[in-house]
């Protein structure tokens, strides 16, 4: 995969989505960033798109459909499964969350909040 240019942020914190968009725009020229406030909104957004995001940054703890529920549905029914690389971006330091996250085939990374320049470099190293 070439350097990613399409991102989907899934986080119920609008401020995090805003800041993450700025970080990505600064570090990756010409990237496109969409955002959803929970798993259900993200699945609806994916259903309307003709293209899959290269990278999904996924929070775990959200109201409505949380990150784990999103992963279950995403892997069951979306054409992006197998293409989009998912990095969990969360404040959870629980080892069981890490293990549960990596049990999903689409999860390739587990990053602690907030998104940093080092995280972006890790994403680029993995996807580029």
Compact description:
The chain is α/β, with parallel strands linked by helices. The chain has helices at residues 14-27, 39-48, 67-77, 95-102, 117-127; strands at residues 6-10, 32-36, 55-58, 85-90, 107-112.
Q: Can you describe what's shown?
A:
With 128 residues, this protein is of the alpha/beta class. It has a single domain, classed as Rossmann fold, CATH 3.40.50.2300. Helices cover 42% and strands 20% of the residues. The protein is built from five helices and five strands. The protein has a five-stranded parallel β-sheet with strand order 2-1-3-4-5, sandwiched between helices. Helix 1 (14-27) links the parallel strand 1 (6-10) and strand 2 (32-36). Helix 2 runs parallel beside helix 3 (67-77). The longest helix is centred in the first third of the chain and has 14 residues, at 14-27. It is globular. The mean pLDDT is 92.
Supply the CATH class.
Answer: Alpha Beta
Query: Terminal Cα separation, in Å?
Result: 6 Å
Question: How would you classify the helix and strand content by structural class?
Answer: alpha/beta
The oligomeric status of these chains comes to single chain
Q: Share of helix among residues?
A: 40-55%
Extract low-pLDDT stretches.
Answer: none
Tally of separate domains = 1
What fold name goes in the CATH topology slot? Rossmann fold
Number of helices: 5
CATH superfamily: Response regulator
β-strand percent reads 15-25%
CA-based shape: globular
Strand order of the largest sheet: 2-1-3-4-5
């Amino acid at each position: 995969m070439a350097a990613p240019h399409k991102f989907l942020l899934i986080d119920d914190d609008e401020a995090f989505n805003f800041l993450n968009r700025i970080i990505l725009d600064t570090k990756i020229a010409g990237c496109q960033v969409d955002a959803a406030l929970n798993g259900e909104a993200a699945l609806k957004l994916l259903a309307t798109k003709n293209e899959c995001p290269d990278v999904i940054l996924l929070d775990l703890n959200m109201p409505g459909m949380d990150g784990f529920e999103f992963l279950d549905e995403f892997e069951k029914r979306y054409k992006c499964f197998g293409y989009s690389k998912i990095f969990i971006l969360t404040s959870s330091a629980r080892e069981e969350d890490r293990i549960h996250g990596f049990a999903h085939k689409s999860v390739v990374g587990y990053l602690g909040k907030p998104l940093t320049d080092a995280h972006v470099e890790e994403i680029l190293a993995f996807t580029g």
